[in-house]
Amino acid sequence: MDGETRILKSVCRSCHGGCGALLHVRDGRLVKIEGDRDSPLSHGRLCPIGTVTVDLVNHPDRLKHPLRRVGPRGAGEWQRITWNQALDEIAERLLEIRSQHGPEAIALGTGTGRHHIRWVSRFGHALGTPNWCEPGFAQCFHPRVNTCLLTFGDFPVCDYTGDTPPACMLFWGHNPIHSGPDGETRFAVREALEHNPKLIVVDPRRTELAARADVWLQVRPGADDALALAMLHVVIGEQLYDERFVRECTHGFDALADAVAACTPEWAAPITWVPAEKIRAAARLFGRTRPGMLEWGCAIEHTPKCIQTVRAVSMLPVLTGNVDVPGGWVFGGRGIGRFPSLIENLTLEVSAKRLGADRFKLLGGEGADLPAAHIPTLLQAMREGKPYPVKAFLVFGNNTLSTYANAKLVRESLMKLDYMVCADLFMTPTAELADIVLPAAAWPELDQIVGLPTVAANVVLAQQKAVQVGECKPDEEIFVELARRMKLAVGTESVKEVLDAQLASGGLGLDFAALAREGFKEAPLAYRRYERSGFRTPTGKIELYSTRLEQLGYPPVPFYEEPPESPLSAPDVARDFPLVLTTGGRIPFYFNSEHRQLANLRRAYRDPRAEIHPDTAARFGIANGDWMRIETRRGGIRQRARVTDGIDPRVINVEHGWWFPDEPGPEYGIWKANANVLTDNAPPYDPAMGTYQLRALLCRVAKAEASG
Ligand SMILES: Nc1nc2c(c(=O)[nH]1)N[C@H]1C(S)=C(S)[C@@H](COP(=O)(O)OP(=O)(O)OC[C@H]3O[C@@H](n4cnc5c(=O)[nH]c(N)nc54)[C@H](O)[C@@H]3O)O[C@H]1N2
Ligand SMILES: Nc1nc2c(c(=O)[nH]1)N[C@H]1C(S)=C(S)[C@@H](COP(=O)(O)OP(=O)(O)OC[C@H]3O[C@@H](n4cnc5c(=O)[nH]c(N)nc54)[C@H](O)[C@@H]3O)O[C@H]1N2
Ligand code: SF4
Ligand SMILES: [Mo]
Q: Is the dihedral of CA 17, 22, 28, 30 positive or negative?
């Protein structure tokens, strides 16, 4: 009715998502958002990004209808077309490329934790290609997930929804106060902090958490493995471990004890830049204060030794018996059910063609939970046609030029494609390289089920369509329509049918319409399930010595290895690039490369900032707020100097995700401040996961002449 306001319960997905949201709709328009106090996860709170959802949805620059390129690729000349024209053309071109070059010549890309992420690989599997990718996959969360599935048989998360708060919290390469990382985690962390637990923070920067920590370990970027091994050395050497839990529930304790025998805090100090007594203090505090939680983040997944670092860090809660106990690490209940990934549609022969699968078995092969292609190998296939040509790339929700390592080489690779499609909310420097651009629906414009893997492991929520904007379509629907037009044998069911089937297999006893009415449903959380059923690993125990990794051909026990471009491993490079670079620490106003269009957020946080110590700044004549040039062997960018003694004089931290939608297209300033001009996608990679170098690199700085 005209003028009447409807309020719909939904779930914010402006980041990975999870915060309960009430969407106010009047005359078919989103007019207000507020936090849903009934939400079991966020209790009515929203972060700055969630708060401006109305501006996001109604932004004048939203893509509102499909576009076809008319000029040369990347020239920024576009013509409006209808959905029918766009979908018919895409279907036809994909069928053509598939029949000429094989289905594996079509690759799909997406972004982190999107509502539609699993639909991207599903559509790929339906059309017969094993090549889909996501820039965080080898570097974000999945290394932790895949490693834990192999060595714990499940993925442990922090117990925030139970009755027992943690007595000790260890934050490792993770700043959830800013990052979430599954939105509502930031609020759960704050609630846990109200109980005044002991705090240990491993971070090269003095974050808000580090500032209030009992022990702050200011680690050299990329030296986390040495630090974790030294802490394990102390926990074992000083018998701070839970003897019963270790004996009954773990496999390979003696092998681990042997591996860390030489890793004394004195050995680790010069490697990690953390004094030995601090390493001891942290290990003792974590060993003696129960229950303890580990909150870990993507910082340990941004170097090529990611899996061994993840393994080493994960053993701290294990040895101290903080697994599957109230207030510790728990295994969430599952209510969301199995997503029909259609992976069974790929024959073994086709799966074996997944780029990188032969080498990186935890990313793309038999050790992977949801196998994905290796990005540097995929880009090489685009550029050089080796090991076989990749001709088409369909990007559903990723700003490839911004978030893939070595952005200049990424552009060169994309320019070699025969056919590129981009679905996004806004025109981006990446979408400008496409043949067809599709207007995607934002989260308040679609139905989905939300069952996040961290805090919300035992909660399933409904995201509901509140409004329609222009001709925007949910990504899920685009896939269904393409599958139908291509006359694929599978993947043609409606979105509603898939959501209902997924809920049915989760066993909560309700379909999507019922979930949407109720808002959310909690599955019961049980502790110490292992006492009845053991762990789902070959030995039935948590594998400190991993039999599965050994079987896959990877080292079964963690060890220390220098990052490839560090002052210790590459002293020749360090002569010209003497500072250690880390990138990407999250800021609360933007999600990766997004939201720079939103005036309210830009007012709060106008420019990119790079952190530098006052001594280093003085050495190069840089003052707080100056534009500073940061260079690596790959290239140079500018960010504004944030001069702070919260960072080591030898370290520089740059923000990632920056481009400037307010500057002229088709580049929108993508080369000015983009952290990934600095990063590297060349080998070496993590041998199991294919991870490349986003952090722990070498750089130099200088004062920049003008803002540019
Ligand atoms: N507001 C907001 N929220 C986000 C995102 C966003 O862009 N904005 N991004 C989302 C995504 S994709 C992810 S993966 C998560 C990431 O969120 P987190 O996992 O919290 O990761 P970061 O904030 O990138 O880095 C965490 C901390 O690691 C530190 N660090 C840097 N290098 C190293 C190192 O070598 N070792 C150690 N131990 N620490 C290091 C940084 O200083 C930073 O404080 O956040 C998600 N949530
Ligand atoms: N140097 C450096 N690089 C990094 C990182 C770092 O720390 N340092 N972090 C890495 C990590 S952990 C990650 S996860 C990746 C993140 O990489 P991505 O998750 O791919 O993030 P973006 O590249 O910002 O792409 C998101 C795009 O999706 C669009 N979008 C938003 N919602 C929708 C939707 O519903 N549908 C569609 N079709 N589009 C939508 C947005 O407008 C935006 O253009 O970046 C990685 N890159
Ligand atoms: S934390 Fe994420 S889910 Fe929560 S309000 Fe912010 S953007 Fe939305
Ligand atoms: Mo990520």
A: negative
Please, what are the domains in the chain? 5-57 (2.20.25.90), 69-136+335-522 (3.40.50.740), 156-330 (3.40.228.10), 571-703 (2.40.40.20)
d(CA 145, ligand 4 centre) in Å? 13
Q: How far is the CA of 657 from the centre of ligand 2 (A)?
A: 8
User: Cα 97 to the chain's mean position, in Å?
Assistant: 31
Q: Output the CA 669–ligand 2 centroid distance in Å.
A: 17
Euclidean distance between CA atoms 590 and 117, whole angstroms: 20
For the CA of 644, the nearest ligand: 1
Contact 653, 642 (CB under 8 A): no
- Residue 31 is predicted with a pLDDT of 98
From the CA of 593, the nearest ligand is 2
Does 700 score more than 90 pLDDT? yes
The backbone torsions φ and ψ at residue 699, rounded to the nearest 5 degrees and listed phi first, read -145, 170
pLDDT band at 334; cut points 50, 70, 90: low
d(CA 369, CA 362): 8
What tokens were used for 694? 């986003």
pLDDT at residue 356, as a whole number: 97
What pLDDT is recorded for position 41? 81
Which residue in 3, 11, 10 sits closest to 31, CA to CA? 3
Ligand nearest to the CA of 36: 3
What is the rounded average pLDDT of the residues 64-93?
98
Give 562-618 as a 3 state SS string: CCCCCCCCCHHHHHHCCEEEEECCCCCCCCCCCCCCCHHHHHHCCCCEEEECHHHHH
CA-to-CA dists, residue 368 to 110, 146, 373, 542, angstroms: 18, 6, 11, 18
Q: pLDDT band for position 685 (50/70/90)?
A: very high
* Helix, strand, coil fractions of the chain, as percent rounded to 5: 35, 20, 50
**What letter represents residue 135's amino acid?**
P
Name the pTM for this structure: 0.97
Closest CA to 242 of 312, 319, 317, 294: 319
Cβ(203) to ligand 1 under 6 A? yes
Tokens matching residue 210:
């580090």
Instruction: Kindly identify the ligand whose nearest atom is closest to the C-alpha of 218.
Output: 1
- Pick the atom of ligand 1 nearest to 588's CA: 1
> Atom 2 (ligand 3): residue with closest C-alpha?
183
Angle ∠(471,475,476) on CA atoms, nearest 5: 120
Tokens for 7?
């309020």
Question: Which atom from ligand 1 is nearest to the alpha carbon of 592?
Answer: 7
| Tens-place pLDDT, residues 451-510 | 865 555 578 889 999 999 999 999 999 999 999 999 999 999 999 999 999 988 888 888
Q: Does any ligand 1 atom lie closer than 6 A to the CB of residue 398?
A: no
Q: Cβ(87)–Cβ(439) under 8 Å?
A: no
Cis peptide bond N-terminal to 444, omega within 30: no
Tell me which of 99-103, 280-284, 383-387, 529-533 is least confident: 529-533
Ligand 3 binding pocket (C-beta < 6 A) is 12, 14-15, 17-19, 46-47, 49-50, 180, 183-184
Q: How far is the CA of 572 from the centre of ligand 2 (A)?
A: 34
**112-171 pLDDT, tens digit each:** 989 999 999 999 999 999 999 999 899 999 999 999 999 999 999 999 888 899 999 999
Strand, helix or coil for residue 110: strand
Q: Give the pLDDT of residue 112.
A: 95
- CB-based neighbours (< 5 A) of ligand 4, an ion: 112, 136, 140
Whether ligand 1 lies within 6 angstroms of the CB of 402 is answered as no
| Token duo for residue 586 | 């999250």
